[in-house]
Amino acid sequence: MAITDWPEDERPRERLLAQGAAALSDAELLAIFLRVGVRGKSAVDLARVLIGHFGSLNRLFAARRGEFVAIAGLGPAKYAQLQAVLEMSRRALAEEIRRADAFTTPAAVRDYLRLHLAGLAHEVFFALWLDAQNRLIAAEELFRGTLTQTSVYPREVVKQALAHNAAAVVLAHNHPSGLAEPSAADELLTRELKQALALVDVRVLDHFIVAGQAQPLSFAERGLL
Question: Which of 45, 122, 187, 203 could cysteine-pair with 168, CB 3.0–4.6 Å?
Answer without folding.
Answer: 203
